[in-house]
Specification:
710 residues; alpha+beta; Nucleotidyltransferase, domain 5; Rossmann fold; Dna Ligase, domain 1; nine-stranded mixed beta sheet; six-stranded mixed beta sheet; 35 strands; 30% helix; 26% strand; globular; disordered N terminus
Length: 710
């Protein structure tokens, strides 16, 4: 079974980023090692096999490979999915463009923003994923109670199918009105379309997102259909090449809400893996929190292209079902609730027409990459600025495998920024760091202060290739007193792939007020969702004894437009249980929105059951204890580095992290170098290594204000 494979083989986590592809490899004894290689955007599979080859691990010895991929999101963003058709209820052909109807044609998240640009589909730009000519209506109607008012016109549907065949449509999405209450018409439509269009995948909305709201359900189903052929082809190619080289293990993929799913399941429901990379990093932070006993964490994942910030409270990150892809496409399946911005090591800086310095969101990516890589890039990036600030050792980037070129970084920043701005090279480099840090600080405040949380109650986890370079300055700027740097921060998201459980979430709309809801009916509905969840996990090889079931309900005050997810106790529901859920809702509503309305009626909108199928986790061995607190043996030397507090370059100690041992203490300013990143520890900070190699850093009690560019 997936839940308890024999511990005789290797386990590999592979996270594909915009710049680097990261590997975490666990040997049969539980020891971890890492690999890192440049991403190959022309064919992502090439980077996977290049990294596996570098590792020297025989593919025949790998029993488990967990994968985070950008294939799905890239297909949507780049408009490189399949030619997809939508079959819908007569009269609802244009729901993808009408959306929710707020302010007619503006983004429903920005209803009152008078400066908001119109969706590009309305101004002659990018169209919805399915053009109008490929959106077809058929006569049928199910009403709000789930009763059939107009039977499905099967002859009309077969006529549509013939048109789709003539048009060589590659995938079909079916979304009928109120199918989440009665899916009979969708099921029959699926049978007819598969009969008429053999080999063409068909996505049914009641299987993809069986909940209220026709636009959200349709959009999510369309995305699944749009990316399904590409994801299926990608996974088939990957597994075929793995098998050719002797791999006989299990391939899994990270889902957007932080759980793993098997490859066959991902081919059917690829919409669930759109945000797999960011979710893997958060999963690793949850695991680290439990490992170190740190309940409340802020996750800062800064890679080569983007920065992601997520709040982890009581060891768990929240999920959202209100997610947008580039403001164009709504995704209603559970997604880890985080903020993602274009800010990473490869983020480009420029001077705009008004003479202002801007950083992002464009990225140099892995090809050509930052100027200092020496691979042909000429634009100044955040990595170039970090190099000139003294944070990076040009001879020890990727452990020395990829030497950096400071002269190329200096030329790029001088020509593109310093000269046009009339400032020194050092001022221009510092300006890049200040601006990108300001952008990331705003994201941290969005996930903490704007959610009703005090940043001082949290510990900031800095990871990704660039996260540890910026974490301390960001923490000081928003008042976070503690930082936690994991043992392998640069490859931490890949570790998240190995510490995550298989996960399935079943959901169903159940519209009622809590006062009117029948506890028995609620119990039966939850029971059916639990049966569905257990069945889905059993299909993926999980034994019942290894499954944990969690209940939740989406609730709102009567008349509100959006809901809050509230935990629901297991077992038979009683009136007192419903009252307990009401009290929890009031508390959560006050936390999120600063008020509660206990006299108002509460509506139930959606019921949810999450199933976690446990799989083996890495068994890290404690590092040998140091004989004393001094890390003198790990000290490599020193170099000049700029720090915001003193506002100048200062002489800074440099340490080799591989030689640090539990109990070692480091006083800032210091730079800690390792294969996958560099940790920047400011003056006044105090850091201690724990028994598993994680570095806990406490900042000065009075963080200094950021200085302006000199």
């Amino acid at each position: 079974m997936v839940s308890a494979p024999p511990r005789t083989g290797w386990r590999v986590g592979v996270d594909i980023g915009g710049t680097f592809t990261d590997f975490v490899i666990m040997d049969p004894s539980g020891n971890l090692r890492i690999e890192k290689t440049l991403t190959t955007p022309e064919d992502l599979i090439e980077a996977i096999f290049r990294g596996l080859s570098q590792s020297g691990v025989p593919l025949a010895g790998i029993e488990y490979l967990a994968h985070g991929t950008t294939q799905g999101s890239n297909a949507v963003i780049e408009r490189k999915g399949a030619r997809t058709a939508l079959v819908t209820t007569q009269g609802f052909r244009d729901v993808l463009e009408i959306r929710r109807g707020q302010r007619a044609i503006t983004d429903p998240r920005d209803t009152y923003n008078l400066q908001k640009d119109l969706p590009q589909s309305y101004v002659g730009g990018r169209l919805p994923l399915i053009e109008r000519r490929d959106r077809h209506e058929v006569p049928e109607r199910v009403d709000v109670r789930g009763e059939i008012r107009i039977p499905l016109d099967e002859a009309a549907l077969r006529g549509v199918a013939r048109t789709l065949k003539e048009d060589r449509v590659e995938s079909v999405a079916v979304s009928f009105l109120f199918s989440y209450l009665n899916p009979a018409h969708e099921r029959r439509a699926g049978e007819i379309l598969r009969e008429e269009l053999p080999g063409v995948p068909v996505s049914l909305s009641h299987e993809i997102l069986p909940v209220i709201r026709e636009y959200e359900r349709t959009s999510t189903t369309v995305i699944n259909a749009y990316i399904q052929p590409r994801i299926a082809t990608y996974l088939e190619r990957l597994e075929s090449r793995l098998r050719e080289q002797g791999f006989q293990g299990l391939v899994t993929l990270m889902q957007s809400h932080g759980g793993i799913m098997t490859s066959p399941r991902a081919r059917q429901r690829p919409v669930h893996i759109l945000e797999s990379g960011p979710a893997a990093g958060v999963a690793a932070v949850e695991w680290l929190g439990r490992r170190t006993g740190t309940r409340h964490l802020l996750s800062l994942d800064v890679g080569g292209t983007t920065a992601k910030v997520c709040l982890v409270r009581d060891y768990h990150a929240e999920t959202t079902t209100n997610f947008w892809i580039e403001d164009d496409h709504f995704l209603g399946i559970p997604v880890t609730d985080l903020v993602e911005i274009g800010a990473g090591g490869g983020t480009l800086a420029r001077v705009d027409e008004g003479g202002a310095l801007l950083v992002g969101p464009e990225s140099a990516g892995s090809q050509p990459g930052p100027a200092c890589y020496g691979l042909g890039g000429t634009g100044p990036t955040v990595t170039d600025a970090n190099l000139l600030q003294g944070y990076l050792n040009p001879q020890f980037f990727l452990g020395g495998a990829m030497p950096l070129k400071p002269d190329l970084a200096a030329r790029a920043i001088r020509e593109a920024l310093a000269k046009p701005l009339g400032v020194s090279l050092e001022q221009a480099a510092r300006g890049i760091i200040q601006i990108v840090n300001a952008n990331m600080s705003a994201s941290i405040r969005v996930m903490s202060v704007q959610r009703g949380y005090d940043p001082r109650d949290f510990t900031l986890v800095g990871f990704g290739g660039s996260g540890p370079l910026h974490a301390a300055e960001l923490a000081a700027g928003v008042g976070i007193p503690r930082l936690l740097f994991p043992r392998i921060p640069g490859n931490f998201s890949a570790l998240g792939l190995l510490v995550s459980d298989l996960k399935h979430e079943a959901m169903r709309s159940f519209v009622s007020t809590t006062r009117q809801a029948d506890p028995g009916a609620l119990s039966r509905a939850f029971g059916e969702l639990e049966s569905e969840t257990l069945g889905a996990l059993a299909e993926q090889g999980v034994a019942r004894r290894d499954v944990t079931l969690l209940r939740a309900a989406d609730l709102r005050y009567m008349g509100q437009a959006h809901e809050i997810k509230v935990p629901v106790p297991g077992g038979p529901l009683r009136p007192r249980t419903v009252h307990q859920v009401e009290r929890t809702f009031h508390r959560l509503h006050e936390q999120h929105f600063s008020y509660r309305a206990e006299e108002a009626e509460i509506e139930i909108i959606t019921l949810r059951v999450t199933g976690l199928g446990r799989i083996p986790k890495p068994r890290e061995r404690p590092l040998p204890q140091s004989e004393g607190a001094s890390p003198s043996r790990a000290r490599k030397g020193e170099r000049m580095a700029f720090f915001e507090g003193p506002g100048k370059f200062v002489r800074t100690a440099v340490y080799d992290r591989s030689l640090l041992r539990p109990g070692h203490r480091i006083a800032g300013p210091a730079l800690v170098e390792q294969l996958d990143t560099t940790l920047v520890l400011p003056p006044g900070s105090a850091s201690t290594l724990d028994r598993y190699g994680n570095l806990l850093t406490r900042l000065s009690a009075r963080p200094r204000r950021a200085r302006r560019i000199p």
